[in-house]
Automatic annotation (TrEMBL):
One of its GO terms (biological process) is cellular response to carbon dioxide. InterPro entries: Carbonic_anhydrase (IPR001765), Carbonic_anhydrase_CS (IPR015892), Carbonic_anhydrase_sf (IPR036874). Gene3D superfamilies: Carbonic anhydrase. The lineage of its organism: Bacteria, Pseudomonadati, Bacteroidota, Flavobacteriia, Flavobacteriales. Reversible hydration of carbon dioxide. It catalyses: hydrogencarbonate + H(+) = CO2 + H2O. Binds 1 zinc ion per subunit. This is Carbonic anhydrase. Its cofactor is Zn(2+). One of its GO terms (cellular component) is cytoplasm. Its EC number is 4.2.1.1. Keywords: Lyase, Metal-binding, Zinc. GO terms for molecular function: carbonate dehydratase activity; zinc ion binding.
Length: 229
């Protein structure tokens, strides 16, 4: 299979034919520009795709993937993606999506020196420390691992909410809304962790508010304010 990469170009030809068969104008529209409604932040794991598992087409989702779907304020790659998606593309939903069976989270659960991966995995080790009481109370290792995957999604979603561009646009437009999901490799199902976005905003306001707005006021009264002449 040393030349298997050549299959990719064959696949590409077939893909073009399929697309044009469905819609002769497909590539003309694709080249015109993008206005996706979603930003998807997921794991680089080859099994946890973005578009395919959501049934979305090219142009419908802006994507950022890294090991264990981490959002860190010092990582220019993820923060630049979020800034661009929120301030320029005006996405309506930001999805942080982890997956059960995540190797990055598994490595972070194992205290050992992994070289260059150490600072990256520290983000997840910190999630463990934040939730250590809950996690250590789970006796079954598999269940504890799954819970850390969910809590990592939750904490990375909170890291998105800490960003000024997200707070400012939400205070003005009530978008974007941040979601936390987990993809189950064994069943193919997407699970919505039903993160209470507005509650998190209110809870973290005292420490992380980077806007001039009192969110508690604006969140509840935006619509009324807009309706008032
Ligand atoms: Zn992963």
């Amino acid at each position: 299979m040393s030349h298997s990469y050549k299959n990719i170009f064959e696949n590409n030809k077939k893909w073009i034919e399929t697309r044009l068969g469905e819609d002769a104008d497909f590539f003309n529209r694709l080249a015109e520009g993008q206005s996706p409604e979603y930003l998807y932040i997921g794991c680089s794991d080859s099994r946890a795709t973005a578009e395919e598992l959501m049934g979305l087409k090219p142009g419908e989702v802006f994507v950022h993937r890294n090991i264990a779907n981490v959002v860190n304020t010092l990582d220019m790659s993820s923060t630049a993606v979020i800034e661009y998606a929120v301030s320029h593309l005006k996405v309506k939903h930001i999805i942080v999506c982890g997956h059960y069976g995540c190797g990055g989270v598994k490595a972070a659960m194992t205290p050992q020196n992994l070289g260059l991966l150490n600072p990256w995995l520290r983000n997840i080790r910190d999630v463990y420390r934040l939730h250590q009481t809950e996690l250590d109370a789970i006796e079954d290792e598999e269940a504890r691992y799954n819970r850390l995957i969910e809590l990592n999604v939750q904490e990375q979603a909170i890291n998105v909410i800490k960003m000024a561009c997200v707070q400012e646009r939400y205070a003005e437009e009530e978008y974007p809304i941040v979601h936390g999901w987990v993809f189950d490799l064994k069943t193919g199902r997407l699970k919505d962790l039903e993160i209470d976005f507005e509650k998190i905003l209110k809870d973290i306001q005292k420490i992380y508010n980077l806007t001039e707005t009192n969110w508690n006021m604006s969140l509840n009264s935006n619509r009324n304010l807009l309706d008032t002449p």
